[in-house]
Each structure stands twice: as structure tokens, then as C-alpha cells.
Amino acid sequence: MNIGMLGTGMVGQAIGSRLVELGHNVMMGSRSAANENARAWVRSRGQLASHGTFAEAAAFGEILFNCTAGRGSLSALEFPRRSDLNGKILVDLANPLDFSRGMPPTLTVCNVDSLGEQIQRAHPLLRVVKALNTVNVELMAHPELLHGPHDAFICGNDLEAKAEATRILNEWFGWKSVIDLGDISNSRGLEMALPLWISLQKKLGTNIFNFKIVK
């Protein structure tokens, strides 16, 4: 499958590398086709990897992954033509974190809105599925790094898109438990989990941890 990857940072490289390992064609997009992070990633990943602009990656991908920094996600999605977004699934991994005042970061949107909802409102025909934003980048692509059961969470308005995102998490990435929280407004809770995640990271001294829901 052709996958469009928006973002060239650690998340984009981890997800993109996993998809290439599985035999998918992955185009990594950025604001400039000359992005050095994307070029270096392509050199390290071989023939199935390519890079271009956000617009080119969106046109290339049958499914899209938003791996941009949350503060730049909305502007990144303004580069593609609407016709190259409409009807496609966008797996949104981004968090609206603001580091301008140092650590810990604050959220640029919370409580009554979320980045996931903002993306869906800006692109109503894009099938947005929030996923994997509550785990470290290493666990996103390799949940087996943790022994024992643990959960991934998704939400979105499109039932078929969520079913496909769940299949991708199960079959491509190896997530055994995926909990569907409901419509895209549940992005609020997922994104507001980040302050708790940061507190736990400081307390535990590691990024390799996750949540398990017990009832």
C-alpha cells in the first residue's frame, strides 16, 4: 500500500520505518522537498521509501499519518489539495504541545476543544482517527517492548475508518488491545492525558510504559 507520512521527526521516522519493514511504499512529506531529515531517512530505508512535500505525500498516500508537531498540524494540512485529502483516512498521532515556556509543555487547546477536532472541522471530508498519541514513539511502532497487556486508544467520527485503523494497529504494529472511545470529541481526553504522561515519565524514569484499563 502507498502511505503518506506527514512529518519528518522521530514519530514520522519510527512509523515510516515500521511500514517500510512491512513492505509498504512510504512517502515522507514536509514543507520543503529538500528537507534533510527526510532525505537521510530515505537513504537509510531503501527503495520503498521516498520523500516530497506535504502536498506530494498527501497525493501519494492511500492512507495518511499525521506525525507533525501538533502546533504545525493544521498549517501542514493546508498544503495538500482538498481533492488529495477528501475521503482518505488520516491517522492523527499529534499532540498540541507548546514548549515556548520550557518544560513541562502546556497544551495549546484543551477542555472544550482538541487538535483532533480542529483537524476534522478544517477538513470535514477527511476521515480523522486519533490514535497512539498517549505512548512514546518507540512503543507506537513496537508495543512488544512492554511485557504483558496494555492498551491503545482511538477515536473518530467514521466507523469504517476506525475499523481500518484498528486493523492497522493490530496487524501492522502488533497492538493486541485497541479501545474505541467514540467520536472525535474524545480527542480532548486523549490529548489532555499528556500532562499525566509527562508526570509518570519523570516519576518512572523511562519512556517505555503505558496504560492498561482494568474493569
Describe the structure.
The chain is α/β, with parallel strands linked by helices. The protein has a single domain (2-204), classed as Rossmann fold. It is 37% helix and 19% strand. The longest helix is centred in the last third of the chain and has 14 residues, at 159-172. It is globular, with a radius of gyration of 16 Å. The protein starts with a strand and ends in an 11-residue tail after the last helix. The mean pLDDT is 96.
How many beta-strand elements?
10
**Regions with pLDDT < 50 over 5+ consecutive residues?**
none
Reported by name, the CATH topology is Rossmann fold
Task: Give the CATH superfamily.
Answer: NAD(P)-binding Rossmann-like Domain
CATH C-level name: Alpha Beta
- Strand % is 15-25%
Please bin the fraction of helical residues: 25-40%
CATH architecture annotation? 3-Layer(aba) Sandwich
Q: State the distance separating the first and last CA atoms.
A: 37 Å
Number of helical segments with 4 or more residues: 9
Order of strands in the sheet with most strands: 3-2-1-4-5-8-9-10
Summed over residues and divided by their number, the pLDDT gives a mean of 96
Oligomer: single chain
Computed structural class: alpha/beta
Q: List the helices and strands in order.
A: EHEHEHEHEEEHEHEHEHH
Shape annotation: globular
Largest sheet: 8 strands, mixed
How many individual domains?
1
Gyration radius over CA: 16 Å
